[in-house]
């Protein structure tokens, strides 16, 4: 029996509300799931076969799910804090850092040592895969989260348009992978992200909307209609404790969360070591020895450009960030 199930709802409409009916060959449409053995989890490293499977599906589908690699106690502690923060951001209304609509918030985790869990933010199995795809010591320069918010009283459900986060001219081969860590089990009932597998091989000619706009990177309607015939979108059910690796170029859309539970999914972006992106993380300085120790122990495997600030400054400013499309994931010429 599959421990992770995937639903493809009936076709409702295209574009802003595109969801698709089940396909005749479900295996073609479900994301691949890697289930590490007890030994692999203990050693925090996939064996050759599971690593090959993860890499193969990153190239083929633009996405792979790795199950049961993040301890639930770490997730629960971080989720408690971030749910509190999500309510603060929601109360900001249209002045808050939302992505396309106010039901989908851009939210950073507290960038200080007391809320930093290596099992979540620098998971060695995730880094093993991104290093295999992108090259050794990828650059970690983005750390945030997406919060799918329950609707406010009287508010209609809202979804994002189908879009790509690579809303600029970009390489035709992998250059950036998003490491998503859901803090609860994700389902269609709490706003699991809609995924269009295999679309990471497209370019900006499929998109509309200029970079920097809240609605940039939108996929044109004719391309959505063409693609849903070939490989329709799905909303996966992903177990708590999993990691989802996604090619930055993949088409996707945040979906409504009709439940009463805030659904938070962390997003760390690993860029290829050769990719000339100038973004830097901002962390509290009490996190510096934590990262240094991980590196000394050979448990980091990342290049992390950081602007260090005092713990007090980090806590004061981490909720005052931009929305997703205001970040520049492009590289310098």
What does it look like?
With 333 residues, the protein is α+β, with helices and mostly antiparallel strands. It has one domain: Sandwich (Jelly Rolls), CATH 2.60.120.620. It is 24% helix and 20% strand. Strands 2-3-12-7-14-6-5-4 form an eight-stranded mixed β-sheet. A two-stranded antiparallel ribbon has the order 1-11. Helix 2 packs across helix 5. It starts with 5 loop residues before the first strand and ends in a 16-residue tail after the last helix. This is Phytanoyl-CoA dioxygenase. It holds the Pfam family PhyH. InterPro entries: Fungal_Metabolite_Diox (IPR051961), Phytyl_CoA_dOase-like (IPR008775).
Write the layout of secondary structure elements.
Layout: E1 6-7, E2 32-34, H1 38-43, H2 48-61, E3 63-66, H3 72-90, E4 98-99, E5 101-106, H4 118-121, H5 124-134, E6 139-148, E7 176-182, E8 194-196, E9 207-208, E10 218-219, H6 221-230, E11 235-236, E12 243-247, E13 251-253, E14 263-271, E15 281-284, H7 288-296, E16 306-309, H8 311-317
Parallel strand pairs: 2-3, 15-16
Antiparallel strand pairs: 1-11, 3-12, 4-5, 5-6, 6-14, 7-12, 7-14, 8-13, 9-10
Summarize the structure.
This protein has eight helices and 16 strands.
Key features?
333 residues, alpha+beta, Jelly Rolls, 8-stranded mixed sheet, two-stranded antiparallel sheet, 8 helices, 16 strands, 24% helix, disordered N terminus, Fungal_Metabolite_Diox, Phytyl_CoA_dOase-like, Phytanoyl-CoA dioxygenase
